[in-house]
């Protein structure tokens, strides 16, 4: 995972297999970075993610809730078709926006 | 027709191993990328559930995975001898989770149900849980 | 410490699956390429022997592979319930094979013995064969 | 596997994991090509072979014997270090030569 803070937006770039163990290992780092920057917007980029499961959904929902404290917005970026399908099952897109290549969907 | 059984400790790091193994076992079927992804995801859900719900993170627990196929379908059975499920119909509800504090989404059952052509689960309090997933094999008309 | 057991039919196509699975299971150890190759080769030898000698090509036979590790060593056990070995010391000789017509080299046992830090085999005529292979884990001085 | 017949030499290029199943699938093709060309020399190229076990040794020894019928020579080419080590255990290099990049070893 990489991250970048720019113009009030905190970007997280995930890659590879975002499975349970990987999420467990990344979680605290993300929590701490969000608390540190208290950003207006957080963008989670899944472009390079080859695998995600319901643990990933739980992680995204939890970050959404965390951001509510600062009235921040969470945006999910560059989901592949199959990853989109998994996220969509949870109704998550009722709560947050999706972007592809910087363009709102 | 082919079959295999795999047993391992409930270490979270074994989840990726189980996914990789199952896909390696199914290699001769030449599955589509999409079928592979769906199978990996269903397995991840069932195996993670066995580890973190069934055994509640106790690494001594044994997760058993059975994979078999014939020309028509793939069958995957994931079994644990963990705590079991109290109320299966509640567990099946989208977004229901008993482990909110672990940032679970409650979507595992829904994903398995969506990706499997046939899904059922039996569970006994204190005895364990068995999840059975079946997927029909799409026979493509290969023009060779 | 971690362990797994894998059981599958004696289809030759399952040999690659067993190799892939064992290496996936050992992933957390970050083995060197060389150790990986040696483990794959030992497994290939033991599993192919179980399939073509133990079960003499009968696909109904079950091959059982047990892999475990702790901080010091990896243990691999390959077991079949096939025909067993008459004369183990003869079987161990380099270039001895009972299946010349299948273009076997008779080098399987020698390769296992060379690559394993500890190798032993028990067999009972008509009951089956168990091969145990151990490999010490090289702890490199990582300077991080 | 690819093959090529040139100036009396029959070349076989193997690649990937040369395990038992793969050898079983290739064997008859190789036998037939050797019987067809009855070449002076057969070169088996292992440059692209990432895995080989004792089944591979058995295959090479059997092709050596097959070639004896035509007084042909068998040469093993471009073995990796680990593959060389496996072949060497059998004493196979007492019977046949080894080449790397066309140069005899
Ligand atoms: N193998 C299992 N053993 C015990 N309880 C389970 C098992 N699998 C699922 N459950 C129960 O069912 C609930 C819903 O499961 P699921 O839909 O996968 O969501 P999540 O894993 O995100 O909680 C879990 O929170 C848990 O209470
Ligand atoms: N699992 C087994 N069951 C029965 N016989 C075996 C088994 N493994 C090895 N053998 C016997 O030992 C001999 C030598 O084995 P090995 O050195 O691996 O050579 P190869 O497999 O090329 O014959 C075999 O030819 C066979 O007779």
List the helices and strands and how they pair.
The complex is a heterotetramer, with two copies of chain A (105 residues) and two copies of chain B (144 residues).
Chain A lengths: L1 E5 L2 E10 L1 H18 L3 E12 L1 H15 L4 E5 L3 H8 L8 E4 L2 E2 L1
Parallel strand pairs in A: 2-3, 3-4, 4-5
Antiparallel strand pairs in A: 1-2, 5-6
Chain B lengths: L1 E8 L3 H14 L6 H22 L7 E8 L3 E8 L7 H5 L15 H8 L2 E7 L3 E9 L8
Antiparallel strand pairs in B: 1-2, 2-3, 3-5, 4-5
Helix pairs in contact in B: 1-2, 2-4
The complex binds adenosine-5'-diphosphate (ADP) (2 copies).
One adenosine-5'-diphosphate binds next to α2 and α4 of chain B.
GO molecular function (chains A, D): anti-sigma factor antagonist activity
InterPro entries (chains A, D): Anti-sigma_ant, STAS_dom, STAS_dom_sf
Family (chains A, D): Belongs to the anti-sigma-factor antagonist family.
Q: Could you describe the 3D structure shown?
A:
Chains B, C: Keywords: ATP-binding, Kinase, Nucleotide-binding, Serine/threonine-protein kinase, Sporulation, Transferase. Chains B, C: It holds the Pfam family HATPase_c_2. Chains B, C: Residues 34-139 form the Histidine kinase/HSP90-like ATPase domain. Chains B, C: One of its GO terms (biological process) is sporulation resulting in formation of a cellular spore. The complex is a heterotetramer, with 2 copies of chain A (105 residues) and 2 copies of chain B (144 residues). Chain A has 105 residues and is α/β, with parallel strands linked by helices. In chain A, 39% of the residues lie in helices and 36% in strands. Chain A is built from 3 helices and 6 strands, in the order ββαβαβαββ. Chain A is globular. With 144 residues, chain B is of the alpha+beta class. Chain B has one domain (2-136): Heat Shock Protein 90 (2-Layer Sandwich), CATH 3.30.565. In chain B, strand 4 and strand 5 (128-136) form a beta hairpin. In chain B, helix 1 packs antiparallel against helix 2 and helix 2 runs antiparallel to helix 4. Chain B is globular. Chain B starts with a strand and ends in an 8-residue tail after the last strand. The structure holds adenosine-5'-diphosphate (2 copies). One adenosine-5'-diphosphate is lined by residues 45, 49-50, 53-54, 80, 82-85, 91, 96-99, 104-109, 129 of chain B.
């Amino acid at each position: 995972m990489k991250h970048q803070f720019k113009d009030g937006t905190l970007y997280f770039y995930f890659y590879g297999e975002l499975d349970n163990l990987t999420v467990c290992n990344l979680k605290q780092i993300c929590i701490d970075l969000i608390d540190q920057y208290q950003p207006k917007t957080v963008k989670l980029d899944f472009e390079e993610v080859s695998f995600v499961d319901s643990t990933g959904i739980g992680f995204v929902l939890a970050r959404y809730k965390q951001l509510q404290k600062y009235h921040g917005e969470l945006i999910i970026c560059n989901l592949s078709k199959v990853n989109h399908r998994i996220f969509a099952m949870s109704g998550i897109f009722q709560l947050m926006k999706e972007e592809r290549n910087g363009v709102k969907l | 027709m082919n079959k295999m059984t795999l047993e391992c400790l409930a270490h979270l790091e074994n989840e990726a191993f189980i996914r990789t193994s199952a896909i390696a076992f199914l290699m001769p079927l030449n599955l589509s990328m999409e079928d592979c992804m769906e199978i990996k995801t269903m397995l991840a859900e069932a195996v993670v559930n066995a580890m973190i719900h069934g055994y509640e993170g106790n690494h001594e627990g044994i997760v058993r995975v059975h994979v078999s196929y014939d020309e028509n379908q793939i069958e995957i059975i994931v079994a644990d001898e963990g705590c079991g499920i109290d109320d299966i119909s509640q567990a099946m509800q989208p977004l229901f989770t008993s482990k909110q504090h672990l940032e679970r989404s409650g979507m595992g059952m829904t994903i398995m149900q969506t990706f499997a052509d046939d899904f059922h689960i039996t569970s006994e309090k204190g005895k364990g849980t068995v999840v059975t997933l079946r997927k029909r094999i799409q026979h493509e008309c290969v023009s060779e």
